[in-house]
Amino acid sequence: MRLHRLTVTAFGPFGVTQEVDFDALSSAGIFLLHGPTGAGKTSVLDAVCYGLYGTVPGSRQSPGTSLRSDHAPADRPTEVSLELTVGGRRLEVTRRPAQPRPKKRGGGFTTEKAQSWLREYHPEHGWTALSRSHQEIGEEIGGLLGMSRDQFCQVVLLPQGDFARFLRADAEARGKLLGRLFDTRRFAAVEERLAELRRAAESRVKAADEQILALAQRIAQAAGPVADEAPPPETRAGEPGLAEGVLRWAAVARAGAWERLDIARCALAAAEERGTVAREALESERRLARLQERHEETRRRAAGLEERRAERDRCHEQLTRARKAELVAPALELRDEAERAHRAAVVTREHTSAGLPPELVAAGPDQLADEERALRAQLGELDAARRAEQRSGRIDAELAALDRQSRADDEVLQEAAQWLAGWESERDVLRGRVESSQEAATRAEQLAGRLEPARRRLEAARRRDALGVREQAAAEALTVAREHAVRAHETWLALREQRLRGIAAELAGGLVDGEPCTVCGSAAHPEPAVAGEGHVDRATEEEALAAHQRADRARAEAESELGLLRERLTAARAEAEGPDGGAESSEAREPVTVAGLQEVFDRLTREHDDAHRTAARSHAAREALAAAEREHLGRLDDRQQAERRTAARTSQREALEREQVMLEEELVRARGECRTVADRAALIERRARQVSAGAEALRTEYAAAERLKEADGRLADAAFKAGFDTPRTAAAKLLGDDAQRELQHRVDAWQTEAAAVADRLAETDARDAAALPPTDPDTAEAAYHLATRQVRDTAAAHSAARERCSELSRLSRRAEEEVRSLGPLRQEYEGVARLAGLTAGTSADNERRMRLEAYVLAARLEQVAAAATARLGRMSAGRYTLVHSDERSGGRRAGLGLHVVDAWTGRERDTATLSGGETFFASLALALGLADVVTDETGGVRLDTLFIDEGFGSLDDQTLDEVLDVLDSLRERDRSVGIVSHVGDLRRRIPAQLEVVKGRTGSVVRQRGAMADPPV
């Protein structure tokens, strides 16, 4: 990399444009960059770094800081332009940071985004623009330089004091710096990956061990008391030998369980035998006890029969007398029935005699019959009077009807007179309703013609508001689509450019040995190009092009949709505003908002509905007028008919009143003391019935007395024949059916019990059992229950032992399966753990306890020390040599030690013991050696321009000459070195100079040398 020209504007302390010609400065090999403190020497180096990477080194790019010069006017933009050659290509990078600028319209400032430009110079075509993308330019420059910003600042811009601190630093600090320079993150990633694999394998092994331990716990639970005799192994998960210990312990537990199963089987057989003997003894005792109890019960029943024999005889005698008394029962029933009939007849006769006249109370049946016939004759004489009375009632009803008709006609006449009095005014009112409904119909038609335009305007206003919202959303969507299309286009252009840069590798992929190349035509292909990292193929470019085309189509569709929405919105606005000619109408003067149009529409709707309802009543009004006219004619006819009926009723009333007088004279004679003829007839009818009832009651009483006398004779004969002295004695011995059945049941029960007792007394087995001593079944039952419990307990113990053996066998098989599956996991874990320990420096195989990353950095540091020694020997007149040390210091790991060998003493000592001047030229040699090694590491990119920042003031004249000679020797490799220093002697020794002069209006640069331009 060689710098040609640097141009800065409004950057840092430089208020105006400043230009640095590095070609002129580099021609001398060494040039001096000097100036007073704060003038801006470091800003020149910052501008170089900013031009390449878009950022400045260290804390000068921290948040809140600005690269813009405070001396620059507001309209002058901050800009850095760097021209350089790298990788055989001459490039120009121009960058502008984000900065405020005056607004083009109005006052104030607006922030302008950062911008970047990249151009390339071709001798045939001049400068050609390559890109304006920050990312593309950064990737292009980074790929050509082959180093990051931090590497560039360490290798090219050798910072003040950094390498002196590197010499005095410990291994950890050196490791951090070397790790950034040589990018050993991949080795650290390998360490971390192996550690992750070790942790993952360890977790899987522990998980498998946990499964085995869980099975061991389940085996211990299933083993029960066997586990107490042989406890499980106390090995933790992850420890070696756990699986084998668990399997051995499980085998011991199974053997103990099988022994306990054999013991339980023998105990169960003995208990079952004892239970059988106890059951047979209990059954024998219970059978003997039942026979003895049966014999004792028979004896008790025989004694009870003898005690109840007297009662049985009494029941038999009572049952015999009752059956004889049953022969007299029919006569007794006849006599009782006759007596009841006689008493009823006497009561009836006394009751009927109470209703007879006193003169007839002592009369006989014949006299009462004669009286009844006389009363019936009087009833026949009252029939004519009853008919006259009925006719008189009908006349009264006819007169009452005439009165009602007269009152009704009077009401008709009065109502007709009142209605006809208001007929004229009612007719005028109805005619007015007809006229108003006709006017309302005309008004409704007019309002209907105004309502439809108002409705259309309201709907148009609603569409206008909705389309306004949609138009805003479509505009935002169009903005998003445009941005997406621009990004897709930039992505496609970037991929296309990247593919064109690697097109050689793509063409090389299609080369075939023996066939000519499509570019050069040669059939030999000695060194075909190879695709580098990040190569873009044709499919990727076409996919990006398709994405760009889709985004462009989406943008066009969004523009079309927005245009259509705006056309519809314009039409809706015009329709909502209404026609110009309608400005005279009241509703056209309403506001064109939706609320205003809604109010106009609602008002017109209400007026139209009111007019429509009024017009709808037109037919009803006409019908009401016609009905009123018909009612007027009906009222006149009703009044005339009522007057005619009144005249006819007058003659009819006079005839009925004459007939009523004649009938009333006849009825007075027939009623006597009663109110009506009917009352008189009812009174005679009641007396006739009383007399007839009295005669009948006397005849019934005489017949009942005769029947009672006959029943008494028959009863006496029946009692004598049955063997009873009197009928009363026979009646006393009578028993009901229930009582007789009860007595018969008692007699039969005694005889049945006597037969059963006789049969049981004849049983020989019960009699023989009674001769034996008494039994004790409770003792036998207790012995049987004890034997049963023992059988049940031993059976439960046997079942538990059998299940324990089965469960232990099943769990042991599972444990063996888990152990077999654990084998590959443990082997994998041991291999990964061995590698992870080796790379992490914790393994015993790693003798120096060095991590993999530290080992790689130690190799790089050894290369740096060897490269630095070549220059340090010349700077120190052959006295000092830098060597790499891999010894450990304190408790830290080895690998990154750095010592200096003093040839005068022959001793090796730490670099921290060097003096200030010695430290400077040692660090300078180390920096130059590091630059060579980093250059080789990053792909061999030549670093033709270097900068060294301060430190020369600590050297004496001889050492300074030797250092300058070493730096001057860099020209042999076509390099140039820029020294940044305040040392005045250097201005005398180095003719090519770049001076930075500060002033009130900002700093300026002045360039001196054989090929220098005049001061700026």
Provide the helix percentage. Answer: 55-70%
User: How are the strands of the biggest sheet laid out side by side?
Assistant: 2-1-4-5-8-9
User: Radius of gyration from the CA trace?
Assistant: 71 Å
Query: By helix and strand content, what is the structural category?
Result: alpha+beta
Oligomeric status of the shown chains?
single chain
Number of strands: 17
**Globular, elongated, flat, extended or rod-shaped: what is the shape?**
flat
Nearest-integer average pLDDT: 76
The proportion of strand residues reads 5-15%
The largest sheet, given as strand count, sense and whether it forms a barrel, is: 6 strands, antiparallel
Low-confidence stretches: 581-591, 1010-1016
How many H/I helices? 27
Query: What distance lies between the first and last C-alpha atoms, to the nearest angstrom?
Result: 26 Å
List the helices and strands and how they pair.
Elements: E1 2-9, E2 18-21, H1 22-26, E3 30-34, H2 41-53, E4 79-86, E5 89-96, E6 99-102, E7 109-112, E8 115-122, E9 126-131, H3 134-145, H4 149-155, E10 157-158, H5 162-168, H6 171-182, H7 185-223, H8 225-229, H9 242-307, H10 309-325, H11 329-354, H12 365-381, H13 383-421, H14 423-501, H15 503-508, H16 538-577, H17 594-616, H18 618-671, H19 677-722, H20 727-732, H21 737-761, H22 764-771, H23 777-840, H24 852-875, E11 880-885, E12 897-902, E13 907-910, H25 916-937, E14 945-949, H26 957-969, E15 976-980, H27 984-989, E16 993-997, E17 1004-1008
Parallel strand pairs: 3-15, 3-16, 10-14, 14-15
Antiparallel strand pairs: 1-2, 1-4, 4-5, 5-8, 6-7, 8-9, 11-12, 12-13, 16-17
Helix pairs in contact: 5-25, 6-24, 7-9, 7-23, 9-21, 9-22, 9-23, 10-21, 11-19, 12-19, 13-18, 14-16, 14-17, 14-18, 24-25
